[in-house]
């Protein structure tokens, strides 16, 4: 029997030397801002391998970024337009677009002094998310429930601190509305004001080309002002986006039948409250007092909209400004009671009459129609309806802002004294008789009658669908309603189409304006630095700086862009020359020459004007 022999040696599978743990692979995620910069470098033909080495990622990551360049650019465009801090990892483009539109909606509500509650914001956000999904052609978007956690993060991310989002249903404050009328007689008695000297102003949007059940075409904001006696209806003030529209090209804008004010966005009056007060209200009221031999001593009631400047409280020694309690506009404010609706309804009536005349003109129809027989076939009737639609479009092309303003002024002038006095009845409860003007006889123009007249005028228009106009359709046109989600999406599309490359160049925010705003902030901090309540001062400055953060970023980006352009321009004018000497004795001189060249380039950048960027 053969011997078994020695057993085989054990196989050592370990590598020689001390054992070392296997290094973990580090995953690096790039923000959208970094990805956008990489795309810019790729467009400059920078090599992908160099970019991968610079950012510490695989070359395949750079290729993926290049493939998704369009999506990344769209994300940056939307994020930049919201004015919020950069969102690092946000892949739901529908939600990003929704949040942008929701910010615009909440800002509009705040400017209109409309309270919003948590429930309504969540519901509006869900409707907006669905509308955006449909607009983007996404049939199955990612689920979005508008949870309380999302709403909290949304408000923090967008720094929404001045918008009232409460837990209860937003509604008019009826308690404050009951307490204010007894308070007003005390003010009038103390200041010896008569109802000739008590005024109220309110703003309202007007879609001056809007038809029943149709999307609006263009909007203006109109400021309506009357006194309590109804003896003074001040000249209307109109806020438009253009300083001088084409319809007024041959006219002096200071001699119109309205005060013409200009704002980048015709939705809001907030930036113009002081200029309206100084240039429109005070001169007009002073002239009225002189004509009526009334002392120039005025009490002006305004709603509690956040857009009004607090400086109005002591802007003029002869004008006392009193703000109505918050959320009481629909109950107390005279202009909001019935006057504005009356004027808008009368404006609609005046607008429909020439529309009917134009679409029903036999001469116009004869020029467009080839049918001259007396008997009309079904095809002839269809042709006539088509011709009327053509005439309808032609009418809207010639119906310009000047004609709309003229109709509005006519409607305002026709408002009766009795109607004005009737609208003030809630505010003037308890006013002594000696403070009131004599009773006015005459019929009060009710909103119901004005709406009926507008409906009848609309039904008389021969174009299709006008005959079916209802009172609800008219009310939809004349009211200042909540902006629907569909209108928000459509309005955003219109603004993006109008805000193309050339338009953005024309409407850039000037760098000097941004710098001036920052200087004003520094002055504000300095003026209030002596506040003995240090806690109050610290809270204020912290919130102020947080609010200005988007503009700080704009300022820094402008500076960086300016310096980069200056360096690029310098090298373009003074291209560096290759060194002429190669020996070691001249090597040091070449280094000195290069250092001097760079020093000169940087000096030229520092000497450049900081206000050179045109804007962001």
Automatic annotation (TrEMBL):
**Region ranges (Disordered):** 1-27, 363-382, 485-510, 572-616
Which parts of the sequence belong to the HTH CENPB-type domain?
Answer: 86-164
Compartments (UniProt record): Nucleus
Q: Where is the composition biased (Pro residues)?
A: 1-10
Q: Name one GO cellular component term.
A: nucleus
Q: Where is the composition biased (Acidic residues)?
A: 606-616
Which GO terms fall under molecular function for this chain's record?
DNA binding
Entry keyword DNA-binding:
yes
**Keyword tags:** DNA-binding, Nucleus
For whether the record's keyword set contains Phosphoprotein, the answer is no
Question: Pfam families under this entry?
Answer: CENP-B_N, DDE_1, HTH_Tnp_Tc5
Q: What is this protein called?
A: Tigger transposable element-derived protein 1-like 42
What organism does the UniProt record list as the source? Answer: Homarus americanus (American lobster)
Q: What is the lineage of its organism?
A: Eukaryota, Metazoa, Ecdysozoa, Arthropoda, Crustacea
Q: Which gene encodes it?
A: TIGD1-L42
């Amino acid at each position: 029997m053969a011997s078994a022999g020695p057993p085989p040696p054990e196989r050592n599978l370990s590598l020689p030397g001390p054992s070392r743990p296997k290094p973990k692979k580090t995953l690096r995620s790039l923000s959208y801002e970094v990805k956008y910069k990489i795309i810019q470098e790729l467009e400059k033909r920078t090599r992908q391998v160099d970019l991968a080495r610079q950012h510490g990622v695989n070359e395949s990551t750079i290729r993926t970024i290049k493939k998704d360049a369009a999506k990344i650019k769209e994300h940056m465009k939307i994020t930049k337009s919201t004015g919020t801090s950069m969102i690092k990892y946000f892949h739901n483009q529908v939600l990003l677009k929704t949040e942008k539109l929701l910010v615009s909606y909440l800002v509009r509500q705040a400017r209109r002094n409309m309270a919003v509650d948590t429930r309504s914001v969540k519901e509006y956000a869900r409707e907006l998310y669905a509308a955006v999904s449909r607009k983007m052609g996404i049939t199955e978007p990612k689920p979005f429930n508008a949870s309380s956690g999302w709403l909290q993060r949304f408000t923090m991310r967008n720094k929404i601190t001045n918008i009232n989002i409460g837990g209860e249903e937003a509604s008019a404050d009826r308690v404050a509305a009951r307490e204010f009328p007894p308070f007003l007689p005390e003010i009038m008695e103390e200041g010896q004001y008569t109802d000739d000297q008590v005024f109220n102003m309110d703003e309202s949007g007007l879609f001056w080309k809007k038809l029943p059940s149709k999307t609006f075409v263009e909007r203006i904001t109109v400021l309506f002002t009357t006194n309590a006696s109804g003896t003074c209806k001040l000249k209307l003030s109109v806020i438009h986006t253009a300083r001088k529209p084409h319809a007024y090209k041959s006219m002096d804008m200071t001699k119109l039948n309205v005060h013409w004010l200009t704002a980048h966005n015709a939705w809001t009056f907030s930036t113009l409250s002081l200029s309206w007060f100084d240039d429109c209200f005070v001169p007009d009221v002073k002239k009225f007092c002189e004509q009526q031999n009334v002392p120039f001593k005025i009490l002006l009631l305004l709603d509690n909209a956040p857009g009004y400047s607090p400086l109005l409280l002591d802007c003029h020694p002869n004008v006392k400004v009193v703000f109505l309690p918050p959320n009481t506009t629909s109950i107390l404010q005279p202009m909001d009671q019935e006057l504005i609706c009356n004027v808008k309804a009368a404006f609609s009536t005046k607008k429909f009459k020439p529309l009917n005349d134009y679409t029903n003109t036999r001469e116009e129809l004869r020029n467009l129609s080839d049918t001259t027989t007396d008997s009309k076939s079904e095809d002839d009737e269809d042709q006539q309806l088509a011709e009327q639609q053509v005439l309808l479009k032609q009418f809207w092309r010639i119906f310009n802002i000047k004609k709309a303003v003229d109709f509005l002024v006519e409607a305002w002038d026709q408002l009766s004294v009795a109607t004005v006095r009737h609208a003030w009845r809630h505010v003037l409860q308890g006013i002594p008789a000696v403070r009131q003007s004599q009773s006015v006889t005459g019929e009060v123009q009710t909103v119901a009658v004005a709406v009926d007249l507008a409906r009848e005028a609309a039904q008389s228009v021969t174009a299709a669908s006008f005959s079916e106009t209802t009172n609800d359709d008219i009310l939809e046109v004349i009211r200042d309603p909540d902006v629907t989600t569909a209108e928000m999406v459509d309005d955003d599309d219109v603004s993006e189409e109008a805000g193309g490359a050339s338009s953005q160049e024309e409407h850039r925010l000037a760098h000097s304006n941004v710098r001036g705003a920052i200087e004003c902030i520094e002055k504000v901090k300095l003026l209030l630095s002596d506040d003995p309540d240090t806690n109050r001062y610290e809270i204020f400055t912290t919130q102020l700086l947080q609010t200005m953060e988007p503009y700080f970023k704009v300022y820094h980006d402008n500076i960086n862009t300016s310096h980069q352009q200056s360096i690029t321009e310098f090298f373009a004018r003074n291209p560096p020359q290759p060194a002429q000497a190669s020996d070691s004795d001249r090597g040091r001189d070449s280094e000195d020459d290069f250092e001097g060249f760079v020093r000169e380039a940087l000096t030229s950048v520092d000497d450049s004007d900081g206000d050179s960027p045109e804007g962001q």
